[in-house]
Specification:
Layout: H1 2-17, E1 22-23, H2 24-33, H3 56-59, H4 62-78, E2 81-85, H5 91-103, E3 110-113, H6 117-131, E4 138-141, E5 148-155, E6 164-169, E7 172-181, E8 184-190, H7 194-199, E9 213-217, H8 219-231, E10 232-244, H9 246-249, E11 260-263, E12 266-268, E13 279-281, E14 284-285, H10 286-294, E15 299-305, H11 306-312, H12 315-322, H13 328-341, E16 350-357
Parallel strand pairs: 2-3, 2-5, 3-4, 5-10, 10-14
Antiparallel strand pairs: 1-7, 6-7, 6-9, 7-8, 10-16, 11-12, 11-13, 15-16
Length: 365
């Protein structure tokens, strides 16, 4: 709470310096990534039962093992590295490395792109404990390399990249930003900034009669994917997150947008409450992701829901390999697997997009 108040005061000062208003994307970047105070830069626990949310690697090691199956053909073709963006607790890296070792496709380097010092420390501890001598192959990077071959993995990264909030009311398009009113952070709508206008290119926002419509656009995510695509000389970007293609993202019935906040496994409605102490996320526009990659010469190899991807890459076989059918261990692992593939859990909501350059057809496409 004390750290959040320090960050709130810092944000309020910056809003004043900017003339009394900033786009929501600026606020979201400060709330999540401000050094030492932002949600992903501070020291509070974020992942797992003691944190604010649980991701697939925390649910079961079968997730990482299946990702390893999916990327192994690309590593065989390119002889490149694995680059993981936002590695969370480090469990995914450990699970992927162990399975790649079993498949005989270990990369020379497993690089992790991580902005949080506290998460880096946790990743180092986890990988050392879970991956043994394989941990020697892991390195940490501060920025995307200028060029690389191999595979980029990003599980639940796109959803926490800053978004602009835009909307329509009475036939006009506006951008929703943050101001300071009576000493508190507050919302204020203004005409769209140049960044928002650029992000709206190719998007037709619904105009509802007598009702406001608010949603998110993703210029930061587009720029990030474009940077990765330019750096990828041969190989694949494998991005996993919750989201929709554009035709089902910007629709009238999603009139409140998809912005969500999480604090201690509970949904928080107000993104301006406790900046730095809670996660802020938005569903992904996967059409924008594909456009950004294709503009840099990558090909969209596959786009499917998480259930289809995991089943196509043999997650059921991984289950049978690791536990005797009918045993208590098998039943527990099967129950965890259900969370990943069932439509009412993560199976349909989460999508997987594979973007590649210079590789042959993958067996699971």
């Amino acid at each position: 709470m004390a750290a959040s108040e320090v960050l709130r005061a810092r944000i309020a000062a910056r809003i004043g310096e900017a003339g009394g208003w900033v786009p929501f994307a600026d606020y979201m970047r400060w709330a999540l990534y401000e050094p030492d105070l932002g949600y992903y830069s501070g020291g509070a626990t974020k992942f797992g039962p003691a944190g604010d949310f649980i991701t697939a690697p925390e649910i079961t090691p079968l997730f990482g093992a299946t990702l390893a199956e999916a990327i192994a053909p690309v590593l065989r073709q390119t002889g490149g590295i694995v680059l993981e963006a936002g590695a969370g607790t480090g469990l995914l890296a450990a699970d992927v490395l162990r399975r790649l070792a079993e498949l005989g496709t270990l990369p020379e380097r497993y690089a992790i792109l991580e902005v949080s010092g506290s998460l880096r420390a946790r990743q180092q501890e986890t990988i050392a404990a879970q991956a043994g001598e394989l941990a020697e192959r892991v390195v940490w990077l501060d920025a995307v390399p200028q060029s690389f071959c191999g595979v980029l993995l990003a599980n639940e990264v796109l959803d926490v990249l800053p978004v602009h909030l835009v909307g329509t009311a009475e036939g006009e398009v506006f951008e929703r930003g943050v101001t300071v009113r009576d000493g508190a952070l507050a919302w204020e709508d203004r005409p769209p900034t140049p960044a928002a206008l650029a992000g709206l290119e190719g998007i037709e926002l619904p105009r509802l009669e007598g009702q406001e419509y608010v949603t998110e656009i993703h210029p930061v995510a587009r720029a990030w994917v474009g940077t990765l695509a330019r750096a990828l000389q041969a190989g694949m970007l494998l991005l996993i997150d919750y989201g929709y293609p554009r035709e089902t993202y910007y629709v009238p019935w999603r009139w409140r947008g998809t912005l969500q906040c999480y604090f201690r496994h509970r949904v928080v409605e107000d993104p301006l409450w406790l900046p730095g102490a809670m996660d802020i996320t938005s569903f992904v526009d996967f059409t924008a992701v594909a456009e950004a990659a294709e503009a840099e010469g990558l090909e969209t190899l596959a786009f499917m829901n998480q259930a289809g991807f995991l089943l196509a890459n043999g997650i059921l076989q991984r289950l049978e390999e690791r536990a005797e059918p009918g045993s208590l261990a098998y039943l527990k692992a099967a129950r965890a697997l259900q969370r990943l593939i069932m439509p009412h859990e993560m199976g349909e909501l989460f999508k997987v997009i594979a973007l590649g350059r210079g590789i042959e057809l993958l067996p699971w496409e």
